[in-house]
């Protein structure tokens, strides 16, 4: 059982109970990572998904009290043209006003997507994923007016915008890179005219298609529009969350051909908490709440290790009633039912909360981190390198506090899909130019913190050695104690 005592704006106690197996750690237990409220964190790498409210597949009011205690300030919302304009030329913003006003009042920062189509217009596209973009002259004119009205209404509360969602999906003539590029261009011009300081995310690529992305970038570059965007978003659901790292780097390399400064943003990703076909991506695996928590935190920390903003899909289970998904999509950090009411937080809620509490922008990534198996290594004075006592595939990323330079290392086994057990390997690590005074070990999945005894670590000049550290397929941290909120 993992208990979380944290307060939101109403000082409500949030308790996470889990029957999932916990990691066995042979070190003295110190305590738990203390949650940090989202409005206590200036900025971080994280975004939490609050999608599908535009299609009434989720209920914002059912889960809003869980947002601030999670520790993530930026929330992803979908604007919903069809929900807002049910009669031509008449906008009903009441539903979206309520959500954005409430979120902003809690110190949250909406990232608002302009989508989907609107079937009240001939050639207006559909209101669900993959249903098609607007393409007729009448519909595109209406789209422009809707975009202008939305940006004008929310420009004082929303800085971050996104254009469409996974436009490359769908069996329609409007899912080509040429057409999606055209929609992106006409829409960003409207946004920037009304709100010049707006930050706009483009493409929103559903699964990584390198040829599609290359064509999209090439068109925007040729028309001198690519520089208008703040970032390019992609989604990529893979069973092993570390398996797409190379593909993401290839996508980034293609983007750099056209704009060396433009960043990637991982805009939507998550894993289910149970098995089931028809529940959306990644259904063909025996997921549990444990493997979901491992997947989400590995994906978050892998994105962080590659300097990519990371969005978690999603805050609560999604009760689809139309579109390609027909069953409850159980990728939420909160368990919900078919009536969209929250039942309880899952283990992944706690695990994501732990990542959010520790990793904000007071830390910087150690970019000169390398591994070697040699016993004697000639090292530059400023280099940071590590050795490991295994040839098994591990992921290791290093971070240091921007001011005091004390360090945190994230470690996990990346060889396979996250398992539903906790098989541990006791491994040794040596960090050259390590900076530790009182190191601790953190199990990210539960948030439990353990003292690393003196017999398990020592310093030899500029090398810090750690012995018999339990490592598994969920992230653990070797961290300076002062960087962990206990």
What's the alpha carbon Rg, rounded to whole Å?
23 Å
Count of discrete alpha- or pi-helical segments spanning 4 or more residues? 10
Percentage beta strand? 15-25%
Strand order of the largest sheet: 2-3-4-5-6-7-8-9
Name of the CATH superfamily of the largest domain: Glycosidases
Could you give a short account of the major beta sheet?
8 strands, parallel, barrel
Oligomeric state, counting identical vs distinct chains? single chain
Low-confidence stretches: 1-11, 373-383
Would you write up a description of this structure?
This is Glycosyl hydrolases family 39. It comes from Pedobacter jamesrossensis. The protein has 486 residues and is of the alpha/beta class. Helix content is 24%, strand content 24%. It is built from ten helices and 24 strands. Helix 7 links the parallel strand 6 and strand 7. It is globular and about 75 Å long. Helix 5 packs parallel to helix 6, helix 6 packs across helix 7 and helix 7 runs parallel beside helix 8. The chain folds into two domains: 322 residues, TIM Barrel (Alpha-Beta Barrel); 120 residues.
Secondary-structure map with pairings?
Layout: E1 29-32, E2 46-49, H1 60-63, H2 67-70, E3 74-78, H3 81-84, H4 94-105, E4 109-114, H5 137-154, E5 160-163, H6 177-194, E6 199-206, H7 210-222, E7 231-235, H8 245-258, E8 263-268, H9 289-305, E9 309-312, E10 318-319, E11 328-329, E12 334-336, E13 342-345, H10 347-358, E14 363-365, E15 369-371, E16 384-388, E17 394-401, E18 407-413, E19 425-432, E20 439-443, E21 448-451, E22 457-460, E23 463-471, E24 476-480
Parallel strand pairs: 2-3, 2-9, 3-4, 4-5, 5-6, 6-7, 7-8, 8-9, 15-16
Antiparallel strand pairs: 1-21, 10-11, 12-13, 14-17, 16-19, 17-18, 18-24, 19-23, 20-21, 20-24, 22-23
């Amino acid at each position: 059982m993992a208990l979380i005592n944290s307060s939101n704006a109403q000082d409500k106690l949030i308790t996470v109970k889990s029957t999932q197996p916990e990691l066995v750690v042979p070190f003295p237990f110190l305590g738990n990572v203390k949650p940090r409220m989202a409005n206590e964190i200036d900025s971080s790498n994280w975004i939490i998904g609050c999608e599908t409210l535009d299609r009434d597949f989720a209920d914002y009011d059912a889960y809003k009290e869980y947002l601030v205690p999670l520790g993530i300030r930026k929330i992803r919302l979908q604007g919903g043209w069809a929900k807002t304009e049910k009669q031509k030329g008449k906008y009903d913003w009441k539903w979206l006003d309520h959500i954005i006003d409430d979120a902003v009042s809690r110190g949250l920062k909406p990232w608002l997507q302009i989508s989907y189509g609107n079937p009240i217009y001939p050639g207006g596209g559909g209101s669900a994923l993959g249903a098609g973009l607007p393409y007729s002259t009448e519909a595109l004119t209406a789209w422009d007016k809707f975009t202008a009205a939305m940006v004008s209404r929310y420009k004082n509360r929303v800085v971050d915008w996104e254009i469409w969602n996974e436009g490359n999906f769908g069996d329609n003539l409007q899912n080509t890179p040429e057409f999606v590029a055209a929609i992106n261009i006409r829409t960003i011009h409207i946004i920037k005219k009304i709100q010049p300081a707006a930050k706009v995310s483009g493409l929103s690529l559903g699964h990584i298609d390198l040829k599609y992305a290359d064509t999209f970038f090439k068109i925007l570059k040729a028309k001198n529009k690519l520089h208008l965007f703040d970032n390019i978003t992609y989604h990529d659901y893979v069973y092993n969350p570390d398996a797409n790292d190379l593909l993401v780097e290839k996508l980034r390399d293609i983007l750099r051909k056209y704009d060396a400064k433009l960043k990637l943003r991982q805009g939507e990703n998550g894993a289910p908490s149970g098995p089931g076909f028809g529940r959306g991506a990644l259904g063909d695996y025996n997921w549990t709440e444990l493997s979901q928590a491992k997947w989400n935190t590995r994906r978050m920390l892998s994105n962080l290790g590659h300097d990519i903003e990371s969005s978690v899909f999603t805050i609560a289970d999604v009760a689809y009633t139309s579109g390609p998904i027909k069953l409850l999509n159980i990728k939420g950090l909160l368990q919900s039912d078919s009536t969209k009411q929250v039942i309880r937080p899952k283990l992944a809620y706690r695990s994501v909360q732990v990542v959010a509490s520790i990793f904000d922008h007071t830390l910087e990534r150690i970019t000169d981190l390398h591994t070697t198996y040699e016993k004697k290594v000639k090292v530059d004075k400023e280099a940071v390198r590590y050795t490991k006592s295994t040839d098994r595939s591990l992921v290791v990323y290093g971070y240091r506090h921007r001011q005091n330079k004390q360090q945190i290392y994230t470690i996990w086994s990346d060889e396979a899909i996250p398992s539903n057990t906790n098989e541990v390997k006791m491994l040794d690590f040596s960090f050259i130019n390590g900076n530790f005074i009182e190191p601790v070990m953190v199990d990210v999945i539960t948030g439990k913190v353990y003292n690393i005894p003196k017999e398990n670590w020592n310093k030899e000049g500029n090398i810090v050695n750690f012995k018999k550290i339990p490592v598994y397929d969920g992230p653990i941290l070797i961290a300076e104690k002062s960087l962990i909120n206990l």
